[in-house]
Design goal:
about 450 residues, alpha/beta, Aspartate Aminotransferase, domain 2, Aspartate Aminotransferase, domain 1, 3 domains, four-stranded mixed β-sheet, 13 strands
């Protein structure tokens, strides 16, 4: 390891190296049978970064992260495959020694993971009750919440009046596909409001969630997927007061920021906050609907999510903080030199954060965006930056894509800087600032 001193001490990539080593050691303690393989992978990792130039050391870190992820997913898959989806009595006993047992996988109750969520999300203020329910995705959590609330709070017979304040296209499509929902123009006339406190449609928007305090709908759902743990829900509950009559829910898709960039399993958390007896049993109704719709976790996903860093608040905060910092720096750098894109918007300009940046050309048809795509790819290659085309965010590495909405809105460039600091992170920031000034 002597040859890697410049990486581990002087370069920001050292933080990534040390964190990957810590995660590997944590998994080794969690699953001792994997210790020999993990030790071998760590030795190979050390050899890959010894004396390597920064861009090559980053590739070694990415290769290790992918191999480490594959090792754990293989172990989780092997364990899950040892029992039937409707296990025998002996198989149920075997599952129960290590995991939440079930008689039929569709009715799996991931109570162990849900207990982790109690310590992961901030505790509610006095007078409020909180419970967390896991689903097979954030969208499954949102769908189930709408199905249950549609029967629970609809003020106009079978119709649920709903106002959606956000930009996520699949939430919009879901609302329009459910026949019992009528879209309300204003929050003041809605039974239910869905707020996305931070959202993006090519430009970033920050929703003033405090308006729901005076609008007083029966229920509010906050989609906090882009925000990490610091989402303001506790502060909203405190402002509402212990006697508040609203049902307050949080939907968080946990594939991105809350799994250390490994994408172990698609999972959505629905957090339910209530302060009054009239909604007793709401969590039971949601869990029952989860079983009926088959929108819960499969055993293999539940096992994969038992990785010790998942729903670890300290790890999640540090991980998200690094990603928010990297993307904030990119947004500021492009803004300062920008003559090519429309005015840059980003939550960082208002003290917030987001896990990616969005840029829209001042004069941009599809051909111009295709040319921009090729320009970025060529420049990244020339500068030896590890930047790949990809349509997501929250990874350890960095990616970009040209988004061409099928709904007809203007295209835009999205760049998602990841957790990994150092050579490519700094290089992409410099590159994009220079391209923005052309």
């Amino acid at each position: 390891m002597a040859d890697t001193t410049y990486i581990l001490e002087a370069d920001a990539l050292g933080e990534e190296v040390r964190e990957l080593q810590r995660l590997a050691n944590r998994l080794s303690r969690h699953h001792p049978k994997l210790t020999p393989q993990i030790s071998g992978m760590l030795d190979k990792f050390d050899a890959g970064i010894a004396g390597a130039e920064p861009h090559a050391a980053e590739r070694a870190a990415e290769a290790f992260a992918r191999a480490f992820r594959a090792l754990w997913l293989d172990a989780a898959g092997s364990e899950a495959s040892s029992v039937y989806r409707s296990p025998t009595a002996s198989e149920t006993q075997r599952i129960a020694r290590h995991h939440d047992a079930f008689g039929y996988e569709r009715d799996l109750q991931p109570e162990t993971l849900e207990r982790r969520c109690r310590d992961f999300f901030p505790a509610p203020p006095p007078g409020w009750r909180q419970e967390h329910i896991l689903f097979s995705s954030g969208q499954a959590a949102m769908t189930t919440a709408l199905l249950v609330l549609g029967r629970h709070i609809a003020s106009d017979g079978p119709t649920l009046r709903l106002a959606h304040r956000g930009t996520y296209f699949e939430t919009r499509a879901l609302i329009r596909s459910l026949p019992f929902i009528a879209e309300a123009t204003f929050a003041q006339t809605a039974d239910l409001v869905i707020d996305e406190p931070v959202c993006c449609d090519g430009q970033f928007h920050q929703i003033d969630t405090g308006k729901q305090l005076s609008a007083s709908p029966c229920a509010v759902i906050f989609d906090t997927t882009l925000m990490g743990r610091k989402d303001g829900v506790r502060e909203y509950l405190a402002a509402l007061g212990a006697g508040g009559k609203q049902i307050v829910m949080r939907v968080a898709s946990c594939l991105k920021l809350l799994q250390g960039g490994f994408e172990l399993a698609i999972v959505g958390v629905l957090s339910v906050h209530t302060s009054h007896a009239s909604v007793g049993g709401l969590g039971d109704k949601l869990r029952r609907m989860r079983t009926l719709t088959g929108s819960g976790l499969h055993l293999v996903d539940a096992i994969a999510l038992e990785a010790p860093w998942v729903f670890d608040p300290n790890h999640a905060d540090a991980y998200a903080s690094a990603i928010f910092d990297h993307n904030a720096r990119l947004a500021y750098a492009v803004q300062q030199s920008n003559t090519r894109f429309e005015p840059v918007t980003h939550p960082a300009f208002g003290g917030g954060g987001a896990p990616f940046c969005s840029f829209r050309l001042q004069k941009g048809n599809l051909e111009a965006y295709d040319a921009l795509d090729q320009e970025i790819a060529a420049e990244a290659l020339r500068r030896r930056l590890n930047l790949v085309r990809g349509g997501s965010f929250g990874f350890r590495a960095h990616c970009y894509e040209i988004v061409k909405p099928e709904t007809g809105e203007a295209p835009f460039l999205r760049i998602a800087l990841g957790r990994r600091g150092g050579w490519s992170c700094e290089g992409v920031i410099v590159m994009m600032a220079q391209l923005a000034g052309k």
